[in-house]
Amino acid sequence: MSYMKLLIVLCTVVAICSLFISNTLFSSLRTTLRSCFGGPSTMTSSTVAGTSPYETKAIGEHKSTLIFFHGLGDQGVGWSQILSGHLNKAGIKVVCPNAASRPVTLNFGMQMPAWYDLKGLSPNSEEDAPGIATATDYAHALIQKEISQGIPSEKIFIGGFSMGGALAIHAGLTFSSKLAGVISLSGFLLQRDTVEGKVSVNKQTPVFLGHGRNDPLVPLTFGQMTEQKVKTFNPNVVFKTYNCDHSSTEEELVDVTNFVKKQLS
Protein backbone atom coordinates (compact mmCIF):
# COMPACT_ATOMS: atom_id res chain seq x y z
CA MET A 1 0.00 0.00 0.00
CA SER A 2 1.34 3.44 -0.97
CA TYR A 3 1.96 6.10 1.62
CA MET A 4 -0.95 8.21 0.26
CA LYS A 5 -3.45 5.30 0.43
CA LEU A 6 -2.32 4.47 3.96
CA LEU A 7 -2.81 8.10 4.99
CA ILE A 8 -6.34 8.12 3.52
CA VAL A 9 -7.26 4.92 5.38
CA LEU A 10 -5.91 6.30 8.66
CA CYS A 11 -7.78 9.57 8.21
CA THR A 12 -11.01 7.67 7.47
CA VAL A 13 -10.64 5.55 10.62
CA VAL A 14 -9.95 8.64 12.71
CA ALA A 15 -13.00 10.39 11.25
CA ILE A 16 -15.29 7.43 11.96
CA CYS A 17 -14.00 7.14 15.53
CA SER A 18 -14.43 10.87 16.08
CA LEU A 19 -18.00 10.75 14.76
CA PHE A 20 -18.83 7.79 17.00
CA ILE A 21 -17.39 9.50 20.08
CA SER A 22 -19.18 12.75 19.24
CA ASN A 23 -22.55 11.02 18.79
CA THR A 24 -22.06 9.09 22.00
CA LEU A 25 -21.21 12.21 23.97
CA PHE A 26 -24.13 14.19 22.56
CA SER A 27 -26.48 11.27 23.14
CA SER A 28 -25.31 11.09 26.74
CA LEU A 29 -25.73 14.85 27.09
CA ARG A 30 -29.28 14.69 25.69
CA THR A 31 -30.15 11.90 28.10
CA THR A 32 -28.72 13.86 31.02
CA LEU A 33 -30.65 16.99 30.07
CA ARG A 34 -33.88 15.02 29.73
CA SER A 35 -33.27 13.52 33.14
CA CYS A 36 -32.63 16.89 34.75
CA PHE A 37 -35.28 19.00 33.02
CA GLY A 38 -38.00 16.51 32.18
CA GLY A 39 -37.95 16.50 28.40
CA PRO A 40 -39.37 13.67 26.25
CA SER A 41 -39.16 10.34 28.03
CA THR A 42 -38.48 6.90 26.58
CA MET A 43 -40.06 5.21 29.61
CA THR A 44 -42.74 2.68 28.74
CA SER A 45 -45.93 2.27 30.73
CA SER A 46 -44.66 -1.06 32.05
CA THR A 47 -41.72 0.60 33.82
CA VAL A 48 -42.67 1.24 37.43
CA ALA A 49 -39.73 0.37 39.63
CA GLY A 50 -36.25 1.84 39.60
CA THR A 51 -33.52 0.04 41.49
CA SER A 52 -34.27 -3.09 43.50
CA PRO A 53 -36.27 -2.64 46.71
CA TYR A 54 -34.50 -2.07 50.00
CA GLU A 55 -35.13 -5.11 52.18
CA THR A 56 -34.36 -5.58 55.86
CA LYS A 57 -34.74 -9.07 57.24
CA ALA A 58 -36.78 -10.01 60.26
CA ILE A 59 -34.80 -10.71 63.40
CA GLY A 60 -35.39 -14.31 64.41
CA GLU A 61 -38.37 -16.07 62.85
CA HIS A 62 -39.79 -14.35 59.77
CA LYS A 63 -43.46 -14.05 60.76
CA SER A 64 -44.70 -11.26 58.54
CA THR A 65 -43.77 -8.75 55.82
CA LEU A 66 -44.54 -5.06 55.36
CA ILE A 67 -44.23 -3.66 51.82
CA PHE A 68 -44.03 0.14 52.06
CA PHE A 69 -44.09 2.62 49.14
CA HIS A 70 -42.35 6.01 49.40
CA GLY A 71 -43.77 9.34 48.29
CA LEU A 72 -43.17 11.55 45.26
CA GLY A 73 -39.51 12.32 44.54
CA ASP A 74 -38.26 10.05 47.30
CA GLN A 75 -36.58 6.64 47.53
CA GLY A 76 -37.20 3.65 49.74
CA VAL A 77 -33.97 3.79 51.74
CA GLY A 78 -35.17 6.32 54.32
CA TRP A 79 -38.37 4.48 55.10
CA SER A 80 -36.46 1.20 55.19
CA GLN A 81 -34.18 2.55 57.91
CA ILE A 82 -37.03 4.05 59.93
CA LEU A 83 -39.45 1.14 59.74
CA SER A 84 -36.90 -1.63 60.20
CA GLY A 85 -35.91 -0.19 63.57
CA HIS A 86 -39.49 -0.55 64.74
CA LEU A 87 -40.49 -3.82 63.10
CA ASN A 88 -37.54 -6.15 62.38
CA LYS A 89 -37.16 -7.18 66.01
CA ALA A 90 -40.83 -8.24 66.01
CA GLY A 91 -40.13 -10.79 63.27
CA ILE A 92 -41.32 -8.53 60.45
CA LYS A 93 -39.42 -8.14 57.19
CA VAL A 94 -39.61 -4.67 55.63
CA VAL A 95 -39.58 -4.19 51.85
CA CYS A 96 -39.31 -0.61 50.52
CA PRO A 97 -39.45 -0.40 46.71
CA ASN A 98 -37.99 2.42 44.61
CA ALA A 99 -40.07 4.11 41.95
CA ALA A 100 -38.61 4.80 38.53
CA SER A 101 -38.29 8.42 37.39
CA ARG A 102 -41.00 9.76 35.10
CA PRO A 103 -42.36 13.16 34.05
CA VAL A 104 -44.83 14.46 36.64
CA THR A 105 -47.50 16.83 35.37
CA LEU A 106 -48.00 18.44 38.78
CA ASN A 107 -44.33 19.49 38.77
CA PHE A 108 -44.35 20.98 35.27
CA GLY A 109 -43.32 17.72 33.60
CA MET A 110 -40.02 17.41 35.45
CA GLN A 111 -38.78 13.88 35.94
CA MET A 112 -38.63 12.42 39.43
CA PRO A 113 -39.35 9.13 41.16
CA ALA A 114 -43.11 8.58 41.06
CA TRP A 115 -45.38 5.53 41.11
CA TYR A 116 -47.75 7.15 38.61
CA ASP A 117 -48.31 10.60 37.16
CA LEU A 118 -49.88 13.21 39.42
CA LYS A 119 -51.90 15.73 37.44
CA GLY A 120 -53.12 17.73 40.45
CA LEU A 121 -53.88 17.65 44.16
CA SER A 122 -57.55 18.55 44.00
CA PRO A 123 -60.19 15.87 44.71
CA ASN A 124 -61.47 16.57 41.20
CA SER A 125 -58.09 16.38 39.45
CA GLU A 126 -57.74 14.05 36.48
CA GLU A 127 -56.03 10.78 37.41
CA ASP A 128 -53.44 8.71 35.58
CA ALA A 129 -55.57 5.57 35.24
CA PRO A 130 -53.03 3.55 33.18
CA GLY A 131 -50.21 4.51 35.56
CA ILE A 132 -52.27 3.61 38.62
CA ALA A 133 -53.15 0.24 37.08
CA THR A 134 -49.51 -0.52 36.28
CA ALA A 135 -48.33 0.51 39.74
CA THR A 136 -51.07 -1.61 41.31
CA ASP A 137 -49.96 -4.63 39.28
CA TYR A 138 -46.40 -4.08 40.50
CA ALA A 139 -47.56 -3.88 44.12
CA HIS A 140 -49.56 -7.08 43.68
CA ALA A 141 -46.48 -8.77 42.20
CA LEU A 142 -44.44 -7.83 45.29
CA ILE A 143 -47.11 -9.37 47.50
CA GLN A 144 -47.13 -12.52 45.38
CA LYS A 145 -43.36 -12.75 45.72
CA GLU A 146 -43.65 -12.83 49.51
CA ILE A 147 -46.37 -15.47 49.26
CA SER A 148 -44.14 -17.58 47.01
CA GLN A 149 -41.44 -17.38 49.69
CA GLY A 150 -43.75 -18.92 52.27
CA ILE A 151 -45.43 -15.93 53.95
CA PRO A 152 -49.25 -16.32 53.94
CA SER A 153 -51.15 -13.36 52.49
CA GLU A 154 -52.87 -12.93 55.88
CA LYS A 155 -49.43 -12.06 57.32
CA ILE A 156 -48.56 -9.44 54.70
CA PHE A 157 -49.10 -5.69 55.18
CA ILE A 158 -48.96 -3.06 52.46
CA GLY A 159 -48.34 0.58 53.28
CA GLY A 160 -46.98 3.85 52.02
CA PHE A 161 -46.53 7.58 52.44
CA SER A 162 -48.33 10.28 50.41
CA MET A 163 -48.73 9.00 46.82
CA GLY A 164 -47.26 5.73 48.08
CA GLY A 165 -49.96 5.62 50.74
CA ALA A 166 -52.60 6.16 48.08
CA LEU A 167 -51.12 3.27 46.09
CA ALA A 168 -51.09 1.08 49.21
CA ILE A 169 -54.80 1.64 49.85
CA HIS A 170 -55.71 0.93 46.23
CA ALA A 171 -53.45 -2.09 45.77
CA GLY A 172 -54.12 -3.51 49.22
CA LEU A 173 -57.89 -3.38 49.12
CA THR A 174 -58.07 -4.71 45.54
CA PHE A 175 -55.69 -7.65 46.08
CA SER A 176 -57.24 -11.04 45.35
CA SER A 177 -56.30 -12.63 48.70
CA LYS A 178 -56.91 -11.49 52.26
CA LEU A 179 -54.10 -9.30 53.63
CA ALA A 180 -53.07 -8.58 57.23
CA GLY A 181 -53.60 -4.84 56.91
CA VAL A 182 -53.22 -1.61 54.94
CA ILE A 183 -51.29 1.45 56.15
CA SER A 184 -51.46 4.91 54.58
CA LEU A 185 -49.61 7.91 56.00
CA SER A 186 -50.48 11.37 54.64
CA GLY A 187 -52.24 9.64 51.76
CA PHE A 188 -55.46 9.86 49.80
CA LEU A 189 -57.88 7.61 47.93
CA LEU A 190 -57.32 6.85 44.25
CA GLN A 191 -60.26 6.31 41.89
CA ARG A 192 -62.70 6.89 44.73
CA ASP A 193 -65.75 6.56 42.45
CA THR A 194 -64.83 3.10 41.18
CA VAL A 195 -62.49 1.44 43.69
CA GLU A 196 -65.31 -0.13 45.75
CA GLY A 197 -66.31 -2.27 42.78
CA LYS A 198 -62.80 -3.73 42.66
CA VAL A 199 -62.71 -4.75 46.33
CA SER A 200 -63.67 -8.34 47.16
CA VAL A 201 -61.92 -10.31 49.93
CA ASN A 202 -60.42 -7.27 51.67
CA LYS A 203 -63.67 -5.58 52.70
CA GLN A 204 -62.89 -6.39 56.34
CA THR A 205 -59.11 -5.91 56.21
CA PRO A 206 -57.89 -3.49 58.91
CA VAL A 207 -56.81 -0.10 57.54
CA PHE A 208 -54.63 2.43 59.39
CA LEU A 209 -54.75 6.03 58.18
CA GLY A 210 -52.38 8.60 59.71
CA HIS A 211 -52.29 12.28 58.76
CA GLY A 212 -50.57 15.50 59.81
CA ARG A 213 -52.96 18.16 61.04
CA ASN A 214 -50.85 20.90 59.40
CA ASP A 215 -50.19 19.17 56.08
CA PRO A 216 -50.05 21.86 53.32
CA LEU A 217 -49.53 19.40 50.44
CA VAL A 218 -52.12 16.71 51.12
CA PRO A 219 -54.52 18.57 53.42
CA LEU A 220 -56.08 16.89 56.43
CA THR A 221 -59.45 17.05 54.67
CA PHE A 222 -58.10 14.54 52.10
CA GLY A 223 -57.40 12.08 54.90
CA GLN A 224 -60.84 12.66 56.39
CA MET A 225 -62.50 12.14 53.01
CA THR A 226 -60.51 8.94 52.54
CA GLU A 227 -61.62 7.64 55.93
CA GLN A 228 -65.27 8.41 55.20
CA LYS A 229 -65.24 6.80 51.76
CA VAL A 230 -63.35 3.63 52.74
CA LYS A 231 -65.69 3.15 55.71
CA THR A 232 -68.64 2.88 53.31
CA PHE A 233 -67.38 -0.54 52.21
CA ASN A 234 -64.85 -1.45 54.95
CA PRO A 235 -65.74 -0.65 58.57
CA ASN A 236 -62.31 -1.59 59.97
CA VAL A 237 -60.63 1.80 59.53
CA VAL A 238 -58.51 3.57 62.16
CA PHE A 239 -57.86 7.27 61.47
CA LYS A 240 -55.39 9.23 63.61
CA THR A 241 -53.97 12.74 63.28
CA TYR A 242 -50.64 14.12 64.42
CA ASN A 243 -49.01 17.48 65.13
CA CYS A 244 -46.93 17.64 61.94
CA ASP A 245 -47.05 18.80 58.34
CA HIS A 246 -46.42 16.53 55.31
CA SER A 247 -44.20 14.23 57.31
CA SER A 248 -44.29 11.58 60.00
CA THR A 249 -43.61 11.60 63.74
CA GLU A 250 -42.31 9.12 66.28
CA GLU A 251 -45.81 8.97 67.76
CA GLU A 252 -47.23 7.96 64.39
CA LEU A 253 -44.55 5.31 63.87
CA VAL A 254 -45.28 3.84 67.29
CA ASP A 255 -48.97 3.71 66.37
CA VAL A 256 -48.11 1.95 63.10
CA THR A 257 -45.98 -0.57 64.99
CA ASN A 258 -48.78 -1.24 67.47
CA PHE A 259 -51.30 -1.58 64.63
CA VAL A 260 -49.12 -4.19 62.93
CA LYS A 261 -48.49 -6.12 66.14
CA LYS A 262 -52.19 -6.12 66.98
CA GLN A 263 -53.12 -7.74 63.68
CA LEU A 264 -50.49 -10.45 64.20
CA SER A 265 -51.47 -11.24 67.80
TrEMBL record:
Gene Ontology CC terms, in alphabetical order: cytoplasm
Domain (Phospholipase/carboxylesterase/thioesterase): residue spans on this chain: 60-262
Q: Where are the transmembrane segments?
A: none
A GO molecular-function term, please? palmitoyl-(protein) hydrolase activity
Q: Which domain of life is it from?
A: Eukaryota
Tell me its EC number(s), please: 3.1.2.22
Cited Pfam families: Abhydrolase_2 (PF02230)
Concerning Gene3D superfamilies, the annotation shows: alpha/beta hydrolase (3.40.50.1820)
Family that this chain belongs to: Belongs to the AB hydrolase superfamily. AB hydrolase 2 family.
Query: This protein is called what?
Result: palmitoyl-protein hydrolase
